Amino acid sequence: MTEPITIAIPMAGYGTRMRPHTWSKAKPLIHLAGKTVLDYCLAQFDTLPGVGSARWVFICSPFQLDQVKEYMDKVHPEKRVDYVIQAVMRGQSDALHLAREFLRGPMLMSFSDTLIETDLAFLPSIQHDGVAWVKEVPDPRRFGVAEVNSEGWVTRLVEKPADIHNNRAVVGFYYFRSAENLMAAIEEQMDQNIALKGEFFLTDTVNVMLAHSARFTIQSTPTWLDAGTREAILETNCYYLDHGRDNSAEAVRHGGVKVIPPVFIPADAKLESCTLGPHVSLAEGVEMHNVTVSDAIIERGAMVENSILTHSHLGRDVIVKGARGRLNIGDNSIVDLSA
Question: Is pTM, for the whole model, over 0.85?
Answer without folding.
Answer: yes
